[in-house]
Specification:
By secondary structure, the chain is mainly α. The chain has 18 helices and two strands. Strands 1-2 form a two-stranded antiparallel sheet. α1 runs parallel beside α16, α3 crosses α4 and α4 packs parallel to α7. It starts with a helix and ends with a helix.
Length: 413
């Protein structure tokens, strides 16, 4: 089944994303790829390990320090293969998305030993249109790379837990290191590994081996300090403070779930009103949401295998969007909470797992998923025109943004 299923994944991916290959560079692609001298010269290439990807921009904030040398290295390889043909760079993104879907398939098989559940989850992940902003946007390569290495790390560590072969352990450490060099959300690896260990009673003794990942995280943070100075550890000043920040995070989490359930009016960035003061309705909804989450946690050890799948998917989703909590109010001039579709890329694996599992509990579940996959894939094909070039891209974004913003200025330019 595995080989034939992989062929099916490849065909689906090629069918829904082939039309994107004709699109040009958009937005930050112009800075990171088209006008980036670092990816065009082997002599300058070592500099990708010495600087952040946006360090040559002016007006950079300390908390915008992005250290992603593997992203730059991948652009260098693409440039040597395709020159400045955007189709080549975008093809690499599409391949990475396909590989990530395959890793989702294998990870779910390893954890739950259910091939059909794994297959349906990976197909949903592959075709969901909310990922267009990651796959079609060449500058989002870091999300694709970090997800690939995070999933690879989880798979290798799970194999280590079940085989006691230290080869798998050191390979998982290596994959983790590559994830750190791809995107900052790799700091979530330790939490994801804890989640995987928690659903395997026989693996609790392996908790001590997480020490290697803590050491690696410390080394990574130290490297950021060496390269960026103290700003390498800087977090943006939170304008919305706890407990309102927690309430805003819960509000955004529900909105992200709604976006996954109803993926219409897609664009790179979304925004919603900030909750700046407590009211009875807000307080009631927040407490209700927290109580529901607490109920899931309390029943974690008491419920049967079917519910463990739901709990695992829920926690994967919530853990995957944790960076949103620290960044949603990073742009006070916007006056609204910022949402980005690309921030859903890793966390949506949990959503796809839960959705596939709930469908399989229904007699008509397979039909529901077939119809859903057809509609979602169709939306991917339909949205390709919005990524044709900068003008179309900016005009699309401006339909949903307030006046006097950077996108409006870019379009005018």
């Amino acid at each position: 089944m595995n080989k034939s299923f992989l062929i099916i994944l490849f065909c689906i991916c090629l069918f829904i994303y082939a039309g994107y290959l004709n699109n040009g560079f958009v937005f930050d692609d112009k800075i990171l790829v088209e006008r980036n001298p670092l990816i065009k010269s082997a002599r300058l290439l070592p500099n990708v390990f010495r600087t952040g990807i946006y360090d040559y921009w002016t007006g950079l904030q300390p908390y915008d320090r992005m250290y992603r040398p593997l992203q730059m290295l991948s652009y260098y390889l693409d440039y040597n293969l395709w020159g400045l043909n955007p189709a080549g760079f975008r093809f690499s993104n599409i391949l990475l998305h396909l590989f990530n879907s395959i890793l989702v398939f294998y990870l779910i098989i390893l954890i739950f030993n259910r091939k059909l559940l794994a297959a349906l989850s990976s197909i949903l992940f592959l075709v969901h249109p909310v990922h267009i902003s990651t796959v079609a946007y060449i500058s989002a390569r870091g999300d694709l790379l970090s997800t690939f290495f995070i999933l690879a790390c989880c798979i290798l560590f799970f194999k280590f837990m079940n085989s006691n072969s230290y080869i798998f352990y050191f390979l998982s450490i290596f994959a983790s290191a590559l994830a750190f060099l791809s995107r900052e959300n790799a700091l979530l690896i330790i939490i994801f590994l804890m989640l995987i260990i928690s659903v395997s009673a026989k693996a609790r003794a392996k908790l001590k081996y997480l020490g290697g990942f803590f050491v690696l995280a410390a080394v990574y943070l130290g490297l950021r300090v060496i390269i960026f100075g103290p700003s390498g550890l800087a977090a943006h000043p939170q304008y919305i403070r706890w407990p309102l920040s927690l309430i805003n995070f819960l509000n955004l989490s529900w909105r992200y779930i709604l976006l996954l359930l109803w993926p219409v009016n897609l664009r790179m960035f979304h925004s919603t009103a900030l909750i700046s003061q407590l009211s009875l309705p807000v307080l009631f909804l927040s407490i209700s949401g927290l109580m529901l989450l607490l109920a899931v946690i309390l029943k974690w050890q008491k419920i049967k295998q079917a519910s463990v799948v739901l709990s695992f998917g829920l926690f994967w989703f919530l853990l995957g969007i944790m960076p949103v909590y620290f960044y949603f109010d990073a742009y006070p001039d916007l006056g609204r909470a910022l949402m980005a579709e690309s921030w859903l890329y890793l966390s949506s694996i949990g959503f796809c797992l839960v959705f596939a599992h709930l469908c399989l509990l229904n007699k008509k579940g397979k039909l529901i998923i077939f119809v859903g996959v057809t509609i979602l894939g169709g939306l991917v094909v339909f949205n390709r025109s919005y990524w044709r070039n900068d003008v179309v891209f900016y005009e699309r974004a401006l339909q949903f943004l307030p006046e006097d913003n950077i996108i409006q200025k870019n379009l005018a330019t």
